[in-house]
Amino acid sequence: MDEGRSSSSSSSTGARSAAKLGVALLVVAGLFDAEALFVPGVAFLVLGLGCIGWVVSGARGVSVSRSLVAPRVVEDEPLAVTVELRSSRVALPSCMVVDPLLGEPVAVGGGRRTASVTAQASFPRRGRRLLPPPSALVRDPLGFAQRAISGERADEVLVLPRIAPVRAAGSGSGQRGTVTRRTRPGVAPAAEVDIDGLRPHREGAPASRIHWAAFARTGVLLERRLRPEGDTRPLVLLDPRHEDAELLDAAVRAAASLCVHLAELGGCALLLPGERRPAPLEPGLSGWPHLHARLALVEGQGAPTMSGLASRRGAIFYVAARAGGRVPPVLAHAPAAGRILVVPGVLSGRRASFEVAGCTGYDLAPDRSRRVAA
């Protein structure tokens, strides 16, 4: 992060009280000719003013800044943090560095032009985190006065949902499984079934492609122009509607984990709430950083868009934050290629297919059981 300017604030209550006491003793000594009070009066006055002068002089020219190794970090993964102190004068004073990422204040010795404090921070939950600027607390040796020097630039960290392995149901942590890209083994590669307009008939083209209605009207042989079926790729659909933040986070982690896993098997698509079209994810994961960031910011509201899902021929992984309730209607009309419901925890009365990120996947096909290949 760029270094910003620094601001300071002072607290000298103890030093001022000592100075005021000294002044009061000197006034009493002068009024009542009490020579015994002159010595403590001068001592308290010098003590108070000396502590204030110590802090003001030591804090002058000191700046504090923080740098992060990256603006993004995955949940529970370490993020390197460095807080740097600089002095435009001869040397830094002894001070305490205060930063929410350091956990506790850290003492820094003086006598140098620069000093730094490094630490490893981590965040247990996804989302955007706005970090207040760090500060350096300069105090006098007696603790009567202090001045806090703060950097004026706050930092922002985007915490991404972690990716968990997909495991066979009931295997625990010892056996890792992989969800097959298609829920039914042996399905042929994408066939050309989507109509993309008409074109003149070509010799050797199958007769099933001839558009006989157009031939009857015009007398010209036309054939249907077909395009490769793009909807055969699996679709991960996230339904985040739930008030419980823990269940929502579990569903988001499951969706992220399934996206990465299915992309490695040949590609998939992700549909988030508020989006009209699924975002494709290729095997090379080239678009994953952008989708990962969008998943980090998903909130527990907004229904997913269901239009167009009935025409998909690939498997649909419906990841819901709400475990109870009836099966989503969209899955009842999903193609035979796959109807997979993924929810936090487990559902009674249903046979689980796989587990991922604290969620369980259930194949809703009535006549077969989806396998998880080891």
Summarize the helix and strand pattern as letters: EHHEEEEEEEEEEEEEHEEHEEHEHEEEE
- Which structural class fits the helix and strand makeup? alpha+beta
What percentage of residues falls in helices of 4 or more residues? 10-25%
Q: Mean pLDDT, rounded to whole units?
A: 79
| Poorly predicted ranges | 1-5, 173-178, 181-193, 367-374
Q: Can you tell me the overall shape?
A: elongated
Sheet with the most strands, sense and barrel status:
8 strands, mixed
Cα end-to-end separation = 44 Å
Rg result: 34 Å
Which band does the percent of strand residues land in? Answer: 25-35%
Beta strand count: 23
The number of helices is 6
- Major sheet strand order: 12-21-22-20-19-16-17-18
The overall number of domains is: 3
Provide key terms for this protein.
eight-stranded mixed beta sheet, disordered N terminus, elongated, 3 domains, alpha+beta, Immunoglobulin-like, disordered C terminus, about 20% helix, single chain
In short:
The chain has 374 residues and is an alpha+beta fold. The protein has helices at 13-32, 38-59, 212-218, 245-264, 288-296, 329-332; strands at 6-11, 62-68, 72-74, 79-87, 95-98, 106-108, 114-121, 127-131, 135-139, 146-151, 155-160, 166-168, 178-179, 192-200, 222-228, 235-239, 268-271, 279-281, 316-320, 339-344, 354-356, 359-363, 372-373.
